[in-house]
Amino acid sequence: MEITFYKYQGTGNDFVMIDDRQQLFDVTDLGLVSKLCDRKFGIGADGLILIRNHADYDFEMIYFNADGSQSMCGNGARCAVAFSAFLGIVEEKTDFLAIDGAHQATLKDGLVQLLMGEVAGIEEKAEDFFVNTGSPHHIRLVDRVKDYPVFAEGKSIRYDDMYAPSGTNVNFVEAISPDEIFVRTYERGVEDETLSCGTGVTAAALVYGKDQPATEIKINTLGGKLSVKFTSKPSGGFSDIWLIGPAEQVYSGKIKV
Ligand SMILES: N[C@@H](CCC[C@H](N)C(=O)O)C(=O)O
């Protein structure tokens, strides 16, 4: 059998995208997901996304990490919006469904603005923080993040007993100015540092932004620039959280499986 795929990237977080409106992809075949995401034996990607029809939404995004596990993916969702526009399913605005619920998004000139789910609050974890932005994120503020041992420290926190059994993603954040940060992320399910993580930078922006007057934080990642806008609630939670950044088709092809 051959599968037609499209490869997308959003600030270097890369995804195999499949138009699965015919529902031909076996979502229980996690070995196939891992194989397609394998950088040596498959196409190679941080994750795989299926676009399916949904009765109440423009489309449904089904996201898998490279190891076949599932969670919400912010950069993947931005790429799914761009891919759905490419397929002619949506134009400049969309309402779609993901694993964590309904999302709105707009697409203009290759830039996708994605409305994230509301965040109930930020948990303190000793000197660090934990936020769920659709996926779980541990946040640590550090100096000189470019020199930080992201893989070693990220892996150790990801597997710490406090997050067992499901684990967490881990973000290391350096303050650049009152409205700008640099974020590096160790991703659960990829089990490595990725060039950018959308739900991760969103969590980092909320943790950093809660102590700043700014309501929009500019984000630098190894894969490019994003920004996050939000409204703080008196309860300590956040609403109207927008993740903004580019999403691009890189190539398309067919793979024998
Ligand atoms: N890269 C994603 C996050 C994907 C999910 C994560 N690895 C998890 O399992 O929680 C993003 O852009 O948000």
TrEMBL record:
<keyword id="KW-0457">Lysine biosynthesis</keyword>
<dbReference type="Pfam" id="PF01678">
    <property type="entry name" value="DAP_epimerase"/>
</dbReference>
<feature type="binding site">
    <location>
        <begin position="187"/>
        <end position="188"/>
    </location>
    <ligand>
        <name>substrate</name>
    </ligand>
</feature>
<feature type="active site" description="Proton acceptor">
    <location>
        <position position="197"/>
    </location>
</feature>
<comment type="pathway">
    <text>Amino-acid biosynthesis; L-lysine biosynthesis via DAP pathway; DL-2,6-diaminopimelate from LL-2,6-diaminopimelate: step 1/1.</text>
</comment>
<protein>
    <recommendedName>
        <fullName>Diaminopimelate epimerase</fullName>
        <ecNumber>5.1.1.7</ecNumber>
    </recommendedName>
</protein>
<dbReference type="GO" id="GO:0008837">
    <property type="term" value="F:diaminopimelate epimerase activity"/>
</dbReference>
<feature type="binding site">
    <location>
        <position position="13"/>
    </location>
    <ligand>
        <name>substrate</name>
    </ligand>
</feature>
<feature type="site" description="Could be important to modulate the pK values of the two catalytic cysteine residues">
    <location>
        <position position="187"/>
    </location>
</feature>
<feature type="site" description="Could be important to modulate the pK values of the two catalytic cysteine residues">
    <location>
        <position position="137"/>
    </location>
</feature>
<keyword id="KW-0028">Amino-acid biosynthesis</keyword>
<comment type="similarity">
    <text>Belongs to the diaminopimelate epimerase family.</text>
</comment>
<keyword id="KW-0963">Cytoplasm</keyword>
<feature type="active site" description="Proton donor">
    <location>
        <position position="73"/>
    </location>
</feature>
<feature type="binding site">
    <location>
        <begin position="74"/>
        <end position="75"/>
    </location>
    <ligand>
        <name>substrate</name>
    </ligand>
</feature>
<comment type="subunit">
    <text>Homodimer.</text>
</comment>
<keyword id="KW-0413">Isomerase</keyword>
<comment type="function">
    <text>Catalyzes the stereoinversion of LL-2,6-diaminopimelate (L,L-DAP) to meso-diaminopimelate (meso-DAP), a precursor of L-lysine and an essential component of the bacterial peptidoglycan.</text>
</comment>
<feature type="binding site">
    <location>
        <begin position="198"/>
        <end position="199"/>
    </location>
    <ligand>
        <name>substrate</name>
    </ligand>
</feature>
<feature type="binding site">
    <location>
        <position position="65"/>
    </location>
    <ligand>
        <name>substrate</name>
    </ligand>
</feature>
<feature type="binding site">
    <location>
        <position position="169"/>
    </location>
    <ligand>
        <name>substrate</name>
    </ligand>
</feature>
<dbReference type="InterPro" id="IPR001653">
    <property type="entry name" value="DAP_epimerase_DapF"/>
</dbReference>
